[in-house]
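ESCALATION

Customer reports they have been waiting on this structure for their group meeting. Please prioritize. Original submission:
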Amino acid sequence: MKKIFKEPLIYFFVLGFVVFGLHSFLNRVNQDETDPFTVEVTSADVEWIRSSWEARMKRKPTQQEFQGLINRYIRDEIFQREALTMDLDNRDLVIQRRLVQKLTFVLEDINESIEPTDDELIKYMQKNQEKYRIPEMISFSQVYFNPEKRKDSFDDAKKVLDRLKSSKSPPEKASSLGDTIMVDYSYKERSPAEVVRVLGKKFADELFSASEMGWQGPITSTFGVHLIYIEKRIASKMSEFASLREGVKNDFMYERKKQVIDSAYNAMKSRYTILLEGLPYE
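Update from on-call: job pushed to the front of the queue and completed.
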């Protein structure tokens, strides 16, 4: 956490939060100094009521509708004041959650108002390389041997492997040497995750750990025994920043939002003494 507070950006967030808090406090003081039984509807309030209606309804309100909106605003203001006077907000979970939500929205808005630079995003991308790395790809074919139809599917696969290695026939003709299976015979440029979805993790692990090209095996899957022909491998590499900028930005903003909220909470919590009867608290 000390490292977070060393970041200049975090100080900006804390400053923004303090300014917001001071503004809210001064507004409350000003309200206390005025007549609590006077409801003032300012021109800014009127414009907010009008613009909110237009944004929601996609049209301007009629004169009658607008008068109803003003009346509703005044009614809500009076009800709110009377409810606070009666202490109806005390220990109300709905109100409590709404206030927490609004404060969280304020902190999120502060985070969203600061556009990250490309340098920040590139550093974030480099720090989280595995997240943005293009996985290794393999183009391969497979010949399947069904253990339910063969006395020794593993031994049969070895015999066919010797035959395939000694012959010069193209790989696409080898499928007839095995058994039928409800998956494709050949695959072009597939990642480990894509192979796992079709033939299972054990098959994918053995396929991608193979060090040679051409025919090899046998290897196993959830279906049974296979021979594999590795035609092409493409090594894993980092993605180009330009192609992932928006995705990196979204990830960066999301992580920074969590840091801002956590930092603000810890800054606020430091001003409180917390007593938790009967339970430990760190």
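Sent to customer with the following note: The CA atoms of residues 1 and 266 lie 9 Å apart.
Escalation resolved.
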